[in-house]
Amino acid sequence: MTSPIAYVSRATDEEEAKWIAMLSQAMPEETIVSVRQMTDDQHKAAEIAVVANPDPDDIGKLSGLKWIHSLWAGVERLVAELGPSTPPIVRLTDPELSRVMAEAVLAWTYYLHRDMPAYRQQQERRIWKDLDYRHPREVTVGLIGLGLLGTASAKRLQDAGFNVMGWSRSLKVQEGVETLSGEAGLDRLLAKSDIAVCLVPLTAQTRGLINARRLQRMKKGASIINFARGAVIVGDDLLELLDSGHIAHAVLDVFEKEPLDANSAFWTHPKITVLPHISAPTDPRSSAAIVAQNIRNWRLSGNLPATIDVQRGY
Ligand code: NAP
C-alpha cells in the first residue's frame, strides 16, 4: 500500500476539504488526508505533502517527508519559513496560470496605455477632453523578470503590438524582445520603459529592487505594475515619486502585508490602483491535474520535476 499524502495549509477545514476533494478526484489511486486529521502513524508514513501556505510546525510533524508540492507558483514565503533544511520543494508550473498572468499583464497594460486612470479622474470632474492616442508600437513595456510568467506575458504583449523588453538574472533569448541582465541591463530597461511590469520572485536580491533611485531612472510620466510581491517595490519611495509627478501611475496587486492595511495610503492615492492579489489565481482543476501527474511520475520512476533552488530563493 502506498503512503498517504498530507495536505497542509493554513486554510479553514471547509476550504481544505474542497482542495482535498479536487486532488482526490485527480488521483483516485491516492489517499490524501489533512495533516490536522492524520494519526501519528500517518504523520510518520507520509512521503509527500501538498501544501498551500502551510504552517511550518505542521510540516515538522511529517518525519518521513521526501518532498513537498506547492499548489502555488510563488514559493517565497514557503522557502523563507521552511529554511535551508527543507525537503525538496516543487512549485506549481501551470500553462493555464501563465496564460492568466499574461492576460492580466495585457489587460492592465491597456488600462495604462489607453489612459483609463486619467479618464476616470476627468469624469469625476465632468471634464470632456481627449488625450493623445499612441500606437502600441510607440509604447515600450519592460518586464522585470522573464521566467515562465514574464515570457508568456512578453509574447502576449508582442502579439498586441507593444515594443517589449525583458530583464532576468541569466540572459534570455526571445525573438523580437530586447533581453537584458545585470545592473546596467535593469537601468536600460527602466530608462526605456513607458510601463514596467514586476514579475520577479521575492528573494534577498529582489527585496527593495525598485527603489527611489531606480524609479528615478524611468522616464517622467512612466507607469509601473507590480504583479510579483509587494516588497519588490519600496512603498515609500513609490509614493514619493508619484507625488513628485515623476511616475504617472502604479497598479499594485501585491503588498508587503495582505490584505492591505485599512490605513494604507495606497487605498486612496489618486495615482494608485489597488488590486486584491488577483492577477493570476491558481486554477484548482488544472493545478490538481498537474500535481497528480507529478506525483504519479514520482511513484512510477522516483523522478521529481524541477525543484526550487532554496539557496537562490526561487
Ligand atoms: P520564474 O519562472 O522562477 O521566473 C522568475 C524570473 O525572475 C526569471 O526570469 C529570473 O531570472 C528572474 N529573477 C529572479 N531573481 C532575479 C534577480 N536577482 N535579478 C534578475 N532577475 C531575477 O517565476 P514565475 O513563474 O515567472 O513567477 C514570478 C513571480 O510572480 C513569482 O515568484 C511570484 O512572486 C509572482 N506571482 C504572482 C502572482 C499573482 O497573482 N500576483 C501569481 C503567480 C506568481 P532567470 O530566468 O535567470 O532565473
Q: Provide mean pLDDT, rounded.
A: 97
* CATH uppermost class of the largest domain: Alpha Beta
Category by helix and strand content: alpha/beta
CATH architecture of the largest domain, by name, is 3-Layer(aba) Sandwich
How far is the first residue's CA from the last residue's CA?
34 Å
Query: Largest sheet, order of strands side by side?
Result: 8-7-6-9-10-11-12
Please work out how many helical segments DSSP would assign: 11
Q: Tell me how many strands there are.
A: 12
Helix content: 25-40%
**Distinct bound molecules:** NADP nicotinamide-adenine-dinucleotide phosphate
Number of domains: 2
Low-confidence stretches: none
Reconstruct the topology from this structure.
Blueprint: E1 5-9, H1 13-26, E2 32-34, H2 40-45, E3 48-52, H3 56-60, E4 67-70, H4 76-82, E5 89-90, H5 95-113, H6 116-124, E6 140-144, H7 148-159, E7 163-167, E8 178-180, H8 182-192, E9 195-198, H9 212-217, E10 222-226, H10 235-243, E11 247-252, E12 272-274, H11 284-301
Parallel strand pairs: 1-2, 1-3, 3-4, 4-5, 6-7, 6-9, 7-8, 9-10, 10-11, 11-12
Bound molecules: NADP nicotinamide-adenine-dinucleotide phosphate.
